[in-house]
Amino acid sequence: xxxxxxxxGLFDPAQGALPIDVPDTTPATEKxxxxxxxxxxxxxTKLPTHLLRNKTxxxxxxxxxxxxxxxxRFSNYPSxxxxxxxxxxxxxxxxDIPAExxxxxxxxxxxxxGNKPR
Length: 118
Known about the structure:
By secondary structure, this protein is mainly alpha-helical. It has helices at 30-43, 55-66, 80-93, 105-115. It contains four helices and no strands. It starts with 29 loop residues before the first helix and ends with a helix. The model has no long low-confidence stretch (mean pLDDT 84).
């Protein structure tokens, strides 16, 4: 048997409940602002100053602008830490890492996931 209490007016705005469509007025964090400035510099776009006061709006701008950042030809290669970790696993398991894994970070990640010591 379950008991559900009835609390009248729990979701009443007079009791302090907020409607779902209330805009977010939380200010952007310093880290978010610094990242937005670096993105604006990389892409050569101007950062709208009114977004610095709104965390959600700045987040949307960052997501849209991040797609426009030019990538280098080395952006698909695995990181140095990823390669070091894979080499440590290969030594422990006495296996070789396939050569194509050194050219694609996704393949390296899959090799690591498949060979991690449990």
